[in-house]
């Protein structure tokens, strides 16, 4: 059986065999090429359909680009199914073979855009409401890991630990840039995304990934903090009454990892080194 495209090619080839010299030649070539008027009518209908599609080619191209860029997560019920079906329906083969043509597909694409836009606006609002807290947590994790790296430099606290944590933390997606665009005012008729932040509908804040990594960072930092606390207590018992040591001991013994990460720096590390000598 011929495919829709091959049927169109065959129709064009037959129509090209019709003479253009005079009416008699046209008639004779038609009767030679076609067995019936019905076959000629069918080929002319094919030609008419191709002509009408050519008139809509800019709209068709825009629709295909929109559908291709509108990333829809599989978890979103019907939207990904609709997107896949419309991408297939607007490709050249199925579109040429469709009885409905572009006029029949255009309303379906308009409905998809409407449903997609509603989902995107809600997603845009949710993400940007949650993003500041996520970025604060990410920055706090970086500070803790920096503190752990400083403590790793003290051989008195045991072998370095936390291999791979810097790489893992660096691999966490910080997400889109902060966006002031009103989600409700987003016009998504022509472009399937916010022009300011370029947020994709299939991107979500990786809360779970960050939580697991923060737990791992806290684990190795707590271990170093505990070892450091024991050593500093020994120095206090030995009679060291430096006020700077007392202040730092308060943080270390409280096991406040956030305070530790905000306090520890290269200068304080140098001071600790002197104490541990």
Q: Major beta sheet, specifics? A: none
| Beta-strand proportion | under 5%
Helix content: 55-70%
Distance between the termini: 88 Å
Total beta strand runs = 0
- What is the residue-mean pLDDT, rounded to a whole number? 86
Helix-strand topology string: HHHHHHHHHHHH
Number of domains: 2
Q: Write down the overall geometry.
A: rod-shaped
Low-confidence region ranges? none
What is the CA-atom radius of gyration, in angstroms? 34 Å
**Helix-strand category:** mainly alpha
Number of helices: 12
In a few lines, what is going on in this structure?
69% of the residues lie in helices and 0% in strands.
Lay out the secondary structure:
Layout: H1 4-16, H2 23-33, H3 37-55, H4 57-69, H5 79-89, H6 92-97, H7 101-152, H8 165-170, H9 207-237, H10 243-253, H11 257-263, H12 266-276
Explain the overall architecture:
This protein is mainly α and 277 residues long. The protein has twelve helices and no strands. The protein has two domains: 1-55, no CATH class; 120-276, no CATH class. The protein is 69% helix and 0% strand. The mean pLDDT is 86.
